[in-house]
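Posting here for the record, re: C2E.
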Amino acid sequence: MSTITRDALKTALLYGLLSIFWLVVCDYLLPLLIADSGQLAHAQLMSGYVWLALSALAIYLARSQLLAFMGVKANARRDQDMQHLRLAAAVFDSTLEGVLVTDANGVIVHVNRAFMEITGYQQDEVLGMRPSKFKSGRHGPDFYERMYKTILSAGQWSGEIWNRRKNGEIYPQWQSIRSIKDDKGAITHFAAVFSDISSIKRSERELAHLAHYDALTGLPNRLLFSDRAEQAQTHARRNKQTLALLVIDLDHFQHINDSLGHAVGDQVLKAVTERLTALLENGVTLARLGGDEFAVLIENPQQAMQAAELAQGLLDGLREPFVLDNQSLFLTASIGISLFPNDALSAEQLLRNADAALFHAKSQGRESYALYTEQLTAHAQRRVELTGELRRAIAQNELRVFYQPIHNLLTRRIEGVEALVRWQHPQRGMVSPGEFIPVAEQSGLIADLDNWVLTQACRQMCQWLNEGVQLSFVAVNVSSRLFSRGDLDHRVARVLAETGLAPGYLELEVTESAVMDDPEQAIEQMHRLRELGLKLSIDDFGTGYSSLLRLKRMPVQKLKIDQGFVAGLPEDEDDIAIVTAIIALAQAMGMRVLAEGIEQADQAHFLLQKQCELGQGYWFARPMPAEQIDWQHAPVFAPV
Ligand code: C2E
Ligand code: MG
Ligand code: MG
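Prediction output follows.
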């Protein structure tokens, strides 16, 4: 109990005792002492005054003590408030969190020291401004709208927000904003407390990196790779695409670790990573699954062959020695390949199958690749081999051009020839273009190949013309792959210039499907080729799906009826109908018409009757070397 309270109680007690004493004096002692009633009444009146005076004095004393008591109390509260304010100011200033206070209109009225440290702004630069000054531009208007709504409805908001420091740097904050209300519930201020969480974010990123990337090589680890394979598989399934997963394992890597130590082993793994990265195209995921095992994920490879070719490329690339500390190390690897959707329907299965294929590759004697299915392995290997051999064949002049005569059915004389490429393989003999043209197309060798055939054919034609052979054209096939490239006309012009053949003697054969791949581009290309002065024909006509409207727009001079329709002549009703229709169509469009694959006299006869102008086929002559052509050959096919 305080002294003041004690004093006030004492005064009250004194006043109580005084009252009792006065009652005793007035009501008992005075009547005993004064018998005279007149004097008694006078004495009682006098004592009444005295009582009044004493009471007033007591009340005055009590009141002044009470006031003193209350005054001290008020002072004490003021002192306490002051102390609280000092405390709050100290906390406000020493806290590591930035504090910003605005008035009800959102105008900044207060910031603390941490605010200045975090944002880089001084107090006088921001007072009177609005917090929108710090916007980073990372959040849209919706974000701020939601934030204000929450503050107004719930009285507070907290969350992550990106703001801009004075130096322009954008950084993340964790911010809590509260509205402050007066006694009547009206908002007077808003207080925002925030901390700079960029370092937390950085650590989070670092942690995520550690969890998903291999520390030694910096490559994605198994966890991230599986995740990516999963996503790629979902994407591939949705878009009806393919996936190839390669697991690469270094052969006998343990020997390096055992003989040269783990430090060298680590260096080798890093060097292998660099080598593999350089060998792979962008957009292909390379990961280290652990130890000496790497994995590659290829999205939408065109064929199994592309994956096999890539595997072969990686094996070849790894075969180059690794130079570490002036020491050459030779490494080989084995690769297992699994394909989606052929081999597996889930990413996990894809990885398992690639592992199985890897095991297979290792058991085959290492330094090789294997596909999950053996049949595919053999097929892909054959194609990869063929690509390598074809490359060599072009360089070493193993290719030949054969010519097949084209007869005028009416005169029966040879009017032109078609150049057909042949491959004189040293071991396998003559390889058919049906086998190696697709390989050349997939490997990109087709451009060189076609260019070579075109050059040979033009040269040969010049020679025949010089020798006085009556020939009106040499036809050369052009791959559909080259049609989608814009520079075909330049290439052809160059060959014509080099060989000196007059363009009117050259005819280029384009398949219907080449035109259908990208009709507009193809038609444009055809016009450019026509401007060179050469002729164009559509090969294998009837097997594609070109619309008549499009055919009309093509600057083409000849249709070659596909041999598939000629084969059934002259009996097959459907073939008769189709061939008759094509001949009529060509005539209506002002084109010449040629039938391929004539093997019998009655086919030739039938075609002549239907007014087909030109014919080509074994019955007339097979494709043969230039010097073997008998220019006088004019077989009789009309029934005798
Ligand atoms: P194509 O242009 O339709 O050539 C006609 C094919 O039919 C040739 O096959 C020819 O030997 C064959 N042939 C000719 N007469 C008969 C016959 O009476 N009966 C049968 N069954 N077949 C006959 P080849 O030489 O094997 O060529 C196949 C295809 O390869 C060609 O079809 C052509 O599309 C392509 N090709 C050939 N040489 C080249 C070339 O230099 N470049 C390009 N890009 N493709 C070529
Ligand atoms: Mg042809
Ligand atoms: Mg053909």
